[in-house]
Amino acid sequence: MAKPNIVFLPIWGKLNETIPQQQMKAVRENGGQAQYGVPGTFFPLTRSAMKFRPTVISLDWIHQYALAPGWLQSLLKTILFAMDVLLVKLVFGPKLVWTIHNLQHHDPRPRGIERWISSFFASYCTRVRILGSGVEQTVADYLKIAVSKCTVVPEGPYIGWYPEGQSRDSARKELNINVNDRVWLYLGTLRPYKGVEDLMDAFLRTEPKGHQLIIAGNPWNKAYAGSLFEKAHGHDNIRIHATSVPDDKLQTFFAAADLVVLPFRHVLNSGSVLLAMGFGKAVVAPEIGLIPFRLRSQPQFLFNEQNNLQAILKKTEELSLEELKEIGLENRRQALLYTWNDFALFVMNLK
């Protein structure tokens, strides 16, 4: 019996290879073949099928193949991508699997075209993979597919991928943070939908004594980074590291932090949540999308319209650092409940 042969698209950049590399590694360890498809945006499915003859093509995103900021360019790319989907199915017949990370691109795109191509592509997929339970009907309704086509296969943890083990004292010394301060951390890309300004506003309204707010991540653009620095001006207890954090320095920021705050305004899934869980941190985040699924062991830290971000942050102040630490350790245990093998077995045994 031939080994399952899985091709992965698109090709992720070197700064964001955690997911595809873990997936490919798991497939190989389970006896399958796994490799990236061909680069480029012109008929990527068909060209990958011609080169590798895969049994399955697994996609995490399709926007780079089918969408652009402008309406006309998006329409042209969408037509070509739809032709690619039809051609690869007609000539080579691989199973298509699409992992849904978010329903819409974070940047402005022609939403009508985006929804049409998403629904079209989903209709040709053998399975649409969702990274947790609770949103199956939402995804099916958006894509206009039967909910039975949706399969829940959570991501494995990032534990073991990034260096860890740095002590709290060592991390704080490196970042020049008082060992006695209580530190709130936001770590992730700096973009408007992430709600970083909301976190800064909540922090400034309470101005808690003996607290530090650290904001770290690559900014969307220079203008947006400038607006964050302007808001933080004059507040020595807000520190902004507006740059991409290297893999070996992630542990420094997480080790120094007592609480991770992810104040997203809208999101379906969040790798930042899973990252914080892997580093054993309590997390304040919104009660939306798949976040309640991931953070089900600490629902008291999820904010919503009734209990807003500031109210939840005040609630965390009622807990000792040891209590926060125990919540974080339970989050780490929860992250370990799923493995990358779950994905490998799913994609290798598609019916």
- The strand count comes to 12
What's the Cα radius of gyration? 21 Å
Instruction: Provide the β-strand percentage band.
Output: 5-15%
CATH homology group of the largest domain: Glycogen Phosphorylase B
DSSP helical segment count: 15
Structural class: alpha/beta
Instruction: Classify the helix fraction into a percent range.
Output: 40-55%
From the spread of the alpha carbons, the general shape counts as globular
What's the rounded overall pLDDT mean?
Answer: 94
Which stretches are low in confidence, meaning pLDDT under 50 for 5 or more residues running?
A: none
Question: Can you write the helix and strand succession as a string?
Answer: EHEHEHHEHEHEHEHEHEHEHEHEHHH
The name of the CATH architecture of the largest domain is 3-Layer(aba) Sandwich
Structure report:
The chain is of the alpha/beta class. 42% of the residues lie in helices and 15% in strands. It contains 15 helices and 12 strands. Helix 8 (196-206) links the parallel strand 7 (182-187) and strand 8. The longest helix has 21 residues, at 71-91. It starts with a strand and ends with a helix.
